[in-house]
Amino acid sequence: MRVNHAGEVAAQALYQGHAAVARDSEIEQQMRQAAAEELDHLAWCEQRIQELGEEPSRMSPIWYAGAYVIGAASGLLGDKWSLGFIAETERQVCVHLDEHLDGLPAEDTRSRAIVKTMRDEEAQHGASAVAAGAADLPGPVKTLMRLTAKIMTRTAYWV
Ligand SMILES: [Fe+2]
Ligand SMILES: [Fe+2]
């Protein structure tokens, strides 16, 4: 749940960063809406972490700042590229959440319900990005994103 929490910190920052520089007002609106849903996800993860007697990652401000800059930077490349970045991010997030669902004990129904709902909404975010004209990113960029996500999830797990 710490990893998911860190992911949601980054997710809302990513959407806010993109919204701040979006050229198309409809896309800006879509980014703000997604950011609001990521904020809900963040609140659910935070509550669940507390219920489990854990602490969120101490790196949260760094996840936030890093993702905001990436969101804004990719937004500056143009909406189709930043939408492509979002579509790929959400796709990778869905893969991660599916793996997490597989690993969660069947009796932890509360965590499962949270992860399942998030997963469905992330899929929706990805589909909206594609519908709004997301470009398909070059393969090496996708690989780099996967590597970055791996470093981030490992770090958030421990620190
Ligand atoms: Fe999310
Ligand atoms: Fe999302």
Structure, described:
The chain has helices at 2-21, 25-51, 60-76, 79-103, 109-131, 139-158. It is built from six helices and no strands. It is mostly helical. The longest helix is centred in the N-terminal third of the chain and has 27 residues, at 25-51. 83% of the residues lie in helices and 0% in strands. The radius of gyration is 15 Å and the shape is globular. It has one domain (2-158): Ferritin. One fe (ii) ion (FE2) binds next to α2 and α5.
Main structural class: mainly alpha
The CATH fourth-level homologous superfamily: Ferritin, core subunit, four-helix bundle
CATH class: Mainly Alpha
Q: Which fold name is given in CATH as the topology?
A: Ferritin
Number of helices: 6
Give me the strand/helix succession: HHHHHH
Mean of residue pLDDT values: 94
Segments where pLDDT lies below 50 for 5+ residues? none
The appropriate CATH architecture is: Up-down Bundle
- The total domain count is 1
Percent of residues in beta strands? under 5%
Q: Could you describe the largest sheet, including whether it forms a barrel? A: none
Bound molecules: fe (ii) ion
In one word, what is the shape?
A: globular
The tally of strands reads 0
Our measurement of the CA-to-CA distance between the termini, rounded to an integer number of angstroms, reads: 13 Å
